[in-house]
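Posting for a labmate who doesn't have an account.
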Amino acid sequence: MPGKGAGEPPPGSDREPAGFTRPEDDLVRRAARRVVRGGRASFPSQAAFRAAVVEAVRREEPRAALGGTRLRRLVVGLPGVRLAVRYSEKPGVPPLETCPVCGAGLVPIRNRTLSGETIVLGRRCSRCDYWCHRQRRVPVRYAFSGSVATTRMTRAGPRA
């Protein structure tokens, strides 16, 4: 007696697979800047920001798929996009080796004592603003907004 479903195609196999594509990094960055600069300038969560960026990316690439983690790692340090992170501390849990926000390596935060020795107080990210001391800090909420240029170039006219 053949097994269940032997020789039969699986249900729904007559359709073509979804076939999502991974959009280029530059396309995602351009879309993120455009979304933040456009009508709605702030997003209270990563999910809301991701939905808006995916919509903008799909205007150029209709089958694009984009995850929240990849989006966040692409826009960390991107001019024009500000990332604010709220953290929760987990006491008794050792600190991480890689940054939970952007995935970069963590470097030690050192301090020199009065006797001249150096001790490690904690770790900080070499790419974004994440840091932790003896307790692990875990990101709880990401908020995205537009940032204004802090310096403006002005054209100096000829002086008389």
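Reply:
Got it, the structure tokens are right above this. The two ends are 101 Å apart (CA to CA).
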